[in-house]
Amino acid sequence: MRYLPDGNQMKNADSHTIHEVGIPSLVLMERAALQTVKVMEEYGIDTSRALVVCGSGNNGGDGFAIARLLREKGHEAEVLFAGKESSLSEECRLQKQIAQRQGIPVFTSYPGKEYTVVIDAVFGVGLSREITGNYLEIIRRMNESSGRKVAVDIASGICSRTGQVLGTAFRAELTVAMACVKLGSVLYPGEEYSGRTVAVPIGIDPEYFRKSPEVCFTYDRADLAGLLPVRRADSHKGTYGKVLMITGCAGMAGAAYLSAAAAYTAGAGLVQIYTAEENRVILQQLLPEAIISCYGTYDEEQLDRLLAWADVVCIGCGLGQSGLSGKLLEHTLETAKVPCVIDADGLNLLSRRKELLDRACVPVILTPHMMEMSRLTGHTVGEIAEDRIGCAAELAERCQTVCVLKDSRTVVLEKGRQPFVNLAGNSAMAKAGSGDVLAGVITGLLAQGTEPFLAACAGVFLHACGGDEARDVKGSYSVLARDLIAGIQRCMKKSKEQTER
Fold this sequence. Notes:
19 helices, single chain, elongated, seven-stranded parallel sheet, alpha/beta
């Protein structure tokens, strides 16, 4: 697990390190410069003719120190000072003076020459306003340069909290992040401006963020084995939970199959699909391991028996939005005594009857994609994209649920918990049925006793890792939802094998 702080959160950690731990700001700055030069060398960046573009703040101070270190290595290093003398921070002023005393050229207008690398140290994480005027022109010239492009901490112009472009932004191919990669560097469109992101140690302990409930976190592939439920030698199918899938109206057997198969793949012991009678034969053929129960009309007594049997319920995948589907959702939320995952048509039905969530007395996980989120919240898709974490947090708090907001950067929110941001997965997963698989994976983890928030986080990550495995086998265009299940199986097997070596 690693943390993804925004600018304000990083400033708090910086202040704590300086004032509580006792590491002076200039020491942090020197370490930042040393690490940036080291990473550029490791990634084969030609620094023989470097232009470092510096602002007035401490990010600019990092830049002046980088120029000095490059000069000490015998490289031609020059600085474009894009800030204002009156706005110089104390540390940046000192670094600027040192650089000038060592004979490093410091320009105040863009030099008319070419460089092997342009290093962005203009704004850092503190930018919150839109870039205009001279700064806009300077960043345009930086982007047009033929040299390699490196950002110090975060690409200038990217909001460190939302990843939005503030007017314009530097397009880095490498971003050297201090202590932690910043949240804005991994959220779109910020990710597209950051290139490869590399976090480097400078003396700020990332564990500082453990007690900060608003700081986002993510998983890496090495974390996966520890996220999976333990499989005991002395166990049976009942040990790993009974799943009730209320999925698949007439003609939507595929959604029922994919979600149920994914629940089994994630480790659930027993899966029962409650579906339209028309789907019985095909589901028995597709997934003979599942129990198939069917309805023709609304049968409350039958539904009560199934709900009493289940350890966890998933409702909505291919369910349709008929009056019958609405009754199934309503009674499930009113009656279920076990955790519920609501996906797809369940969410669409819920968007028209939001008061149904008030009747639930069990943990609920909502898994909307962006359009479903728009229906649930009343925000436009564009508004959600601009602040997906804020919108997901709003829904999670208002409805007292776990919210899994699905997108190119899926986020998981629950009130009082640090937000999870998924960085795994790829565009090959953008296919019909992918969401059904995710709902099934989360449900399967819940069935094995994983608590709802962690089941959602682990499910999202496992699903995405399965997508990466599927792409490696099928390529970026040809992955189907069923391939995600095979990919999940492979990555679970690999993860456990690695821990057993």
